[in-house]
Amino acid sequence: MSDVLSEFRAAERPDDVALFLADSFVEDPQLEEFGERVKGGVLMVVDGESGRSAFEAATGTGAMEFARSAMATESEIDDDLTDGVCPDCEDGAPEFVFAFAEERNEDVGGIYAEGDVIHAYAQCSCGSSYSDRWVVES
């Protein structure tokens, strides 16, 4: 795993976003120039503004609009951001995942007081979207 990916997963890149695009969703060899080939697709970490634009270009929907709709359903997304558990089907796999890190914020309370938090939002191949969040382990 690249240093950039490791830093993102450790919440050391709060101004960046991570995007996973499955091969089954988007087949563009040029994506590897911007990210890293992982099982089933390409995972990239880019600055927030570029990442939101890339997400919209790849999926046809705004990143924050997608995140808001996916928040309605919680399920598990793997911390490597390439897989998850769709709440609506047994054999679905994420077509894409959008994620960002939020720094520890004791004033907000809850899990945000426990440490840095990763927010992840996935779209399954069955069409369902869902979200997950977790405290980054130090």
TrEMBL record:
It holds the Pfam family DUF5807. InterPro entries: DUF5807. This is DUF5807 family protein. It comes from Saliphagus infecundisoli. The lineage of its organism: Archaea, Methanobacteriati, Methanobacteriota, Stenosarchaea group, Halobacteria.
